[in-house]
Amino acid sequence: MMLTALAMMVVLADPPANDGWEVAAQEDNLTVYARERKDTSVREMKAVGVIDAPPEKVWKALRDYENYSKTMPYTQVSKIVAREGGDKVIWFYSVVNTPIVARRDYCIKLTDVSKWDNGKGYLKVVWTASNDKAPPKPDDVVRVTVNDGYWLLEPVDGGKKTKATYYVFTDPGGSLPKWLVNKANSSAVPDVFEATRKAALK
Predict the structure, then answer these.
(1) N or C: more exposed end of the chain, with fewer CB within 10 A?
(2) Cα gap 143→130, rounded to integer Å
(3) Is residue 103 a contact partner of residue 91, using CB atoms and an 8 Å limit?
């Protein structure tokens, strides 16, 4: 059964009131939210949208970490540096080269917390910065020490499509003014979402 226009509106509806999220940008099948934090002037970011592929395909694209240098914007280096419990826990190292600012590198610990059974439930990976397993920092990069987030994938349209939620809270560090950090994060979130969409549809 195809999603009706009303159902699509529900999928992309604003988050519940009182949680502080505000719409930062909106386009077809994607809404980007921002939220202030009391402990910092860097905002949390979240994107919610529908991807025209089953959750398993989107999950496969997301977990293809070592090919992020080919699929994700600005990514120059992407490699897995450690694993635990098979693929349940992964340490991933990356170097990114964005416009204007110096290159950044980071290492994150990704944990699979999915509850998925034969096409029902959800697929979810959460991460946090974990530079204890990172390779030595190159001299010409700034190491990122704040990088938390998750991807949540839920089936819609009978499992033919995916409602995807991408959350990230990160500070690239260095001497960047916080207004510029927030502007960069606001641009990067939809770019990452679109790159994931394209990778899943391939």
Answers:
(1) N
(2) 11
(3) no
**Residue 4, in any domain of the structure:** no
Roughly how many angstroms between the first and final C-alpha of the chain, as a whole number? 24
Whole-structure pTM value: 0.87
Six token digits for residue 99: 């416009």
Beta strands at 40-51 and 161-171: parallel, antiparallel or unpaired: antiparallel
Strand partners, 122: 115
Interacting residues of 187 by C-beta distance below 8 A, sequence separation 6+: none
pLDDT digits (tens, 9 = 90+) for 115-173: 999 889 999 999 999 999 999 999 999 999 999 999 999 999 999 999 999 999 988 77
The amino acid at 128: T
Contact (CB, 8 A) for 183 and 37: no
What is the rounded distance in angstroms from the CA atom of residue 35 to the CA atom of residue 57? 30
Say whether 76 sits in a helix, a strand or coil.
strand
3-state DSSP: the chain helix, strand, coil percent, rounded to 5? Answer: 25, 45, 30
- Residue 179 has a pLDDT of 58
Indicate the residue type of 195: A
Can you tell me which residue has the tokens 């790159």? Answer: 195
1 falls within a domain: no
Which residues of the chain fall below pLDDT 50?
1-18
- CATH number of domain containing 172: 3.30.530.20
180 inside domain: yes
Q: What pLDDT does residue 38 have?
A: 84
| Rounded-to-integer distance, Cα 131 and Cα 121, Å | 32
